Give the backbone structure.
Amino acid sequence: MAILGPGRATSSPAGDELHTSKHVAYIKNLDTRRDELEYWLTEHLRLNGVYWGLTALHTLGHPNTLPRDQTIDFVLSCQNDSGGFGAAPGHDAHMLYTVSAVQILVTIDAVDELEKRGRGGKQKVGSFIANLQNADGSFMGDQWGETDTRFLYGALNALSLLRLLGLVDVPSAVAHIQRCKNLDGAYGIRPGAESHAGQVFTCIGALAIAGRLDLVDKDRLGAWLSERQIESGGFNGRPEKLADACYSWWVGSSLAMIDRLHWIDGKKLAAFVLQCQDPDAGGFADRPGNMVDVYHTHFSLAGLSLLKFNGLEEIDPVYCMPKAITARCLAGTSRLWVDGNPYGNPYGEYLPPE
Amino acid sequence: MGETTYSTDPEWADVTPIELDDGSNSSVMPLASIAYPPEYLEATSYLRAVMAANEMSERALKLTEAVISMNPAHYTVWIYRAKILFALNKDLNEELDWLNDVSLKYLKNYQIWHHRQVLLSSKPHFPTIPAKETTFLMEMFAQDSKNYHVWTYRHWLVRHFKLWDSPQELQDVEYLLKADIRNNSAWNHRYMLRFGPRDTDSPDAGMVNAGDIEKMPSEKGRLTVVDEEMVDAELKFAQEAILRAPENMSPWSYAKGVLRAAGRGLEEWEGFAGKFVEGGGVKSSHAVEWLACVVAERGEKEEAVRLFGMLEEVDPIRKNYWGYRIKSVEAAA
């Protein structure tokens, strides 16, 4: 699946129309553009690209657009002997692709394929992820040792979907998140790093999965997050940076998880995001006038879904997957949010090992 | 890319390249099979072969460079390259010089920064910070003074080499703030230099006590030993920045962090903040919020509500947030 282009977002006011059929066609056609130079340059994002495209199609209400069997074949072809997944066939395993693989398989209800055709079943996938946890609670992306709160979030996301959260030390992961908190009430990529809205999502999402949102100073964080909305209506990721459509998701979902999404102007946000779409060829860009890509397409639609934009499927702010699917997948677990109780599990429990 | 190909190069004659198995030979066309240009495909097929043999050689090192130049986001090649560098005991300063060029070319790439961190983590090679390191980082900041990867790396550097009191660190922060007083990354770095945790025996954190679940929220960021003179100087620094750009959030936020570190209250800035709200006009919404917090804490509900009400007017995009603040004041005992 291609990641970038080919179209551009409109730079004129787009009105309040969402060009659903254009976006569906855009994602569908991404896979037919293999002759373009861009295609191999973004090879390291291939499996993520499938997750973005697939989830966007679900959000748009067209869940069966991608052929299910081929999707499963592709996902499994990215798996390494270690149980982890690479970005594409022949690529080394890494946390980020492993999480995408799990999310895709859960979305198309094909986790059992791991047992049937995968390399060692879901337990092996879980072990791959669990082996990347460090003594301080943080997670590496692969054996190379880089740490990032994205990897920690991804680990908790995938393991909870597989019901294998008991394989890792959740309390120490929670402690690591706490150390990533800054004086402004928000969170960074690592302890001491500047607060960043994308990293806030990963930290709050991880705490939500761990059932420890009680540790968040919600008013303070909510103030910082709502301050991300600028005059154009869009969100930036850090103070004094430009707005970008994908932050409608990173900021919006974080606000939703702490029950403060109403602190921003949803109408103005939606108007900004809609200006980032290409009304003719489909897809969304980071900003009006820029080239569209599947990453911004997915996160723009996810952001609009949080705002309950007309006609879009509801998305789960913790998992960034269709809510109907996470509800099905997590049914019967101790997760309180599955039954509609918002994201505050005061008991700090997490899923026991199966 | 040059004219030579690996398959015709005698230096590579003994290596059997490993072709990419992307599943295209299976009966179903994979959803996302990849069209590679031939040069890249060939180079990576030789890369797979030498990696499989764990070959630590000059030619393999050169090959990693070729692959990186075509695709620096190829995450596996970096690990292999680092291994070779250490195995062959290469001059890591030369590697840094090469890396500088790659970094300046691919500003958004983050594999580069972890590679750099892996190299500089080697105490035998780098018992102290390399002389040209901060100069290069300033070159990076000249391209993008808010580059998140570079700042995160610089934070690591400070902690690894214990540079909190290095004059160079503060000098660079001041230079960058002078160029752009709204550079929140530089403000964050300044806070970490002045007030961040320095105990390298326990894990790093964004504030002292941040990771300690036992501590009350008010104790997070609070220092046990306070250099009042330094605190006063930092507060003055923040005030000067605010006078230059009153609506800039960073120095207001910084000042809150400084006061908290010193265990001092917001009320000592009541007079300063008041200057931005005189005569009916609002010159800084942050000043109004500051004042509102101070009077609310003193129990002056009516005044706090009036001030938050002003914010509803000047910052309508967040009127629900300010409404919430008003309700909280009214509900307080």
Q: What stands out?
A: Chain B touches chain A through 70 residues (CB under 8 Å). Residues 23-33 of chain B have pLDDT under 50 and may be disordered. The radius of gyration of chain B is 27 Å. Residues 23 and 30 of chain B are 7 Å apart (CA to CA).
